[in-house]
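Shipment paperwork, digital attachment
Item: protein structure file
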Amino acid sequence: MINRDTLIQQIYSDLIRIKQLMISSMKCQSTELTWAQIDLLFRVSQQSNITAGQMADELGISPSAIAQILSQLEKQNFIARTADQSDRRVSLLSITDSGLIKLTRVKEIAQGHIGVLMSSLSDDELLIWSQLQKKIIDGVKTDDRPTTRQPGNY
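Attachment content:
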């Protein structure tokens, strides 16, 4: 019989290890960005005119941490802040052309690393992996249940 809690613990450990491998390999390629900067730049590219506060909520980090990351990205001309027309106290974030170029390069590097990490999988296994990820992501998007669950309570 399958012990679901044990499997979930193993999946968690494996996902952490995959992330560590990605971060490590990205450092070797010298993207000149931290993982947090890459994550924020990607999210801004997906959601134009988002506020720093919304981004902090979405990433689950403090507004001061977001401010520091944004400041670094702004200095490199990867993001721009513009005043919200309806509330001049609020700044809206958008990605610049330089930011898009940098993000494209980072994606190319990341996709190469993912290709290497997934090289031990057959095409069929890779397809199954992709389908399972999509199912998980789609389930989270449409699921109105709490996102945290207690062990054994699935």
